[in-house]
Design a protein that fits this description.
Elements: H1 3-14, H2 24-36, H3 61-72, H4 81-91, H5 112-136
Amino acid sequence: MDDDTWRAYLKQAFDVSSSTQLSLDRLRAALAHLERCGFQIASNSAPHEWTWVDTAPADRAPLLRKIIMLMKSTKVTRGKQVAYVEGIARQMSGFNGSGKGAIHKPLSMCGPEQLLDIVKALAIHIKRERDRAAADA
């Protein structure tokens, strides 16, 4: 369901513009409605690779969420996204991370400044990939 359809449903059914404005009971009612319409809840049996972001320090969480959103715009499959981002961080400022700006630690251990550098590098990388794909088409 796209964002506009979801917001239209929230407005029509609950007279709110965002699910953050719903009480827990109303949110459960919305979920029940979606299930009746055929929506299937993904299994929560195995946590996904970004689960740790929910417990990240407040100064890092927004940048980590930005990285997640950037990764959603790529074709990198879930389960490989953190490794992909860490690979880009190692390659920053040189081949195989040999440059001064390269980051040689897990994403979860990066500070805010390093995460900001990763966001910038990832955005540039994604733009280049899109430009290449457009040129090939």
